[in-house]
């Protein structure tokens, strides 16, 4: 991990749901350039909430957020962040809203100020990279679940982000699409955080895997992935497995 300034720096983040349940309690988190991080934790632990805080979609009750070396506080601050960090939603239907694939993929580049020709060119290039040649005029709502997920990823990559936040990108994919997605992500030269419940998926793509526990990210202890496929927060410390 680089010792230079982090791309994303969260300090003492505190956040609670409206029902009063504390999600984060003075959470600390740093992402450096070239980091490829996996995050695994139970449902309701705050993985998606973490992404939404980074993107400014949710505001913490306390703490400091610094991204690309700048402290963030206002909506205007986050507008620049959203041009440089791509968020892939857990549900592809939340990301796709245009009638055709090309319209969906070109929407982001157009909003970045690209001309129509430039937006179409980068969209075609992105679709080709993802193996989606010929999808330009496909009707979005008629795509399969796996196709929708890849097109949703295309809408993010077409904006040429510097960081990716991927929320359960492999959920519901058949094996062939899952393998294709792994190969696509391996080919990217970009920092990313992947939230997933699939240990094998994270093992293929992440350099480090962490967990959320008691409102904090366990940055000091790597989540070790064993060949017999389970995870726990004891890291490399000696430990025993209880017989069942």
Describe this structure in words.
The chain contains seven helices and twelve strands. With 244 residues, the chain is α/β, with parallel strands linked by helices. It is globular, with a radius of gyration of 19 Å. The longest helix has 14 residues, at 116-129. It has a single domain (8-219), classed as Rossmann fold, CATH 3.40.50.300. 31% of the residues lie in helices and 24% in strands. Strand 9 and strand 10 form a beta hairpin.
Q: What's a concise summary of this model?
A:
With 244 residues, the protein is of the alpha/beta class. The chain has helices at 47-54, 75-84, 101-111, 116-129, 145-157, 175-187, 199-205, and strands at residues 8-16, 22-31, 36-40, 62-67, 70-71, 85-88, 163-167, 191-195, 208-213, 216-217, 224-225, 231-232.
Secondary structure topology:
Layout (H helix, E strand, L loop, with lengths): L7 E9 L5 E10 L4 E5 L6 H8 L7 E6 L2 E2 L3 H10 E4 L12 H11 L4 H14 L15 H13 L5 E5 L7 H13 L3 E5 L3 H7 L2 E6 L2 E2 L6 E2 L5 E2 L12
Parallel strand pairs: 3-8, 3-9, 6-7, 7-8
Antiparallel strand pairs: 1-2, 1-4, 4-5, 9-10, 11-12
Helix pairs in contact: 3-4, 3-5
């Amino acid at each position: 991990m680089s010792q230079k300034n982090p791309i994303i720096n969260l300090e003492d983040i505190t956040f609670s749901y409206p029902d009063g349940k504390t999600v984060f309690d003075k959470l600390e988190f740093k992402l450096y350039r070239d980091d490829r991080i996996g995050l695994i934790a139970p449902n309701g632990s705050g993985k998606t909430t973490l992404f939404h805080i980074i993107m400014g979609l949710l505001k913490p009750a306390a703490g400091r957020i610094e991204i690309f070396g700048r402290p963030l506080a206002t909506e205007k601050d986050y507008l620049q962040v959203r041009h440089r960090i791509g968020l892939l939603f857990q549900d592809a239907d939340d990301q796709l809203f245009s009638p055709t694939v090309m319209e969906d993929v070109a929407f982001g580049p157009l909003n970045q100020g690209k001309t129509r020709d430039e937006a179409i060119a980068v969209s075609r290039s992105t679709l080709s990279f993802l193996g989606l040649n010929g999808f330009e005029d496909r009707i979005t709502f008629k795509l399969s679940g796996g196709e929708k997920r890849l097109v949703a990823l295309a809408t993010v990559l077409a904006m040429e982000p510097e960081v990716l936040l991927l929320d359960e990108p492999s959920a519901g994919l058949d094996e062939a699409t899952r393998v294709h997605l792994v190969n696509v992500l391996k080919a990217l030269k970009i920092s990313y955080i992947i939230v997933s419940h699939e240990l094998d998926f994270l093992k293929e793509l992440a350099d480090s895997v962490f967990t959320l526990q008691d409102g904090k990210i366990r940055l000091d202890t790597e989540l070790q992935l064993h060949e017999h496929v389970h995870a726990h927060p004891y890291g490399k410390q000696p430990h025993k497995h209880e017989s069942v």
